[in-house]
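[Discussion] Sanity-checking designs against the backbone

I'm trying to build intuition for which residues belong where. Below is a structure token string of 229 positions. I'd appreciate it if someone posts a full sequence so I can compare it with mine line by line.
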């Protein structure tokens, strides 16, 4: 029991850092990790000095992620049916990435679990399918045997019966069902409803212009970040 408590105390700063930031650069680990450790020590938690550094924080983060991976693999492997969901995004480095999630039953309740955030250099059908397959293969080799649904944003590259991601996955999973994301459906419905309103078009053009300005200018993005801080 004492050893478990000790491990928990040592891992808490790293776990707090992981769940509270999206910045995993070394300087961020140093500043946040040491700050959290200092607060724990101030509150009477006894921590060995060996663990008061960025390398220890990095090691605990790695161990924590590995444990999460093991838990996820166990859940996916033991589940009777799962739904695999994927959506494109852009990370802080403006790289094209793909979010992959699974949905399964856990103690009789449907839960959604994050699987991976993978770099997706080719945002086409084949590239997206390869990223989804790679992310899921890392968690459970038999994931296709129990996949019932494919959740997506409704884009042609995703839902195409013959040339889309759904079509390719369906070749290996004949019973696969495509499920269009409710949030994306609502967005499309709202857009169709108000697209004839001039003010909406002005707001849309302004928003897109701002997005492009910061997406393609590293200097402007840095200035915006400095202003926010």
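Best answer:
Here's mine. Compare freely.
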């Amino acid at each position: 029991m004492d050893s478990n408590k000790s491990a928990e105390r040592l891992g808490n700063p790293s776990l707090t850092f992981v769940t509270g930031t999206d910045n995993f650069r070394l300087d961020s680990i140093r500043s946040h990790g040491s700050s959290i450790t200092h607060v724990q020590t101030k509150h009477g938690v006894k921590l060995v000095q060996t663990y008061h550094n960025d390398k220890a924080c990095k090691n605990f983060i790695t161990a924590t992620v590995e444990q999460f991976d093991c838990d996820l693999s166990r859940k996916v492997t033991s589940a009777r049916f799962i739904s695999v969901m994927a959506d494109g995004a852009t990370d802080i480095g403006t790289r094209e990435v793909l979010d992959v999630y699974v949905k399964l039953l856990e103690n009789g309740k449907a839960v959604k679990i994050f699987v991976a955030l993978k770099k997706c250099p080719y945002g086409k059908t084949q590239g997206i399918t390869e990223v989804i397959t790679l992310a899921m293969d890392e968690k459970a080799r038999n994931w296709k045997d129990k996949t019932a649904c494919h959740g997506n944003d409704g884009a042609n590259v995703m839902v195409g019966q013959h040339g889309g991601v759904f079509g390719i996955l369906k070749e290996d999973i004949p019973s696969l069902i495509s499920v269009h994301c409710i949030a994306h459906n609502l967005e499309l419905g709202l857009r169709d409803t108000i697209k004839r309103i001039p003010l909406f078009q002005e707001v849309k053009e302004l928003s897109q212009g701002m997005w492009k300005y910061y997406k393609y200018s590293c200097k402007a993005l840095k200035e915006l970040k400095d202003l926010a801080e």
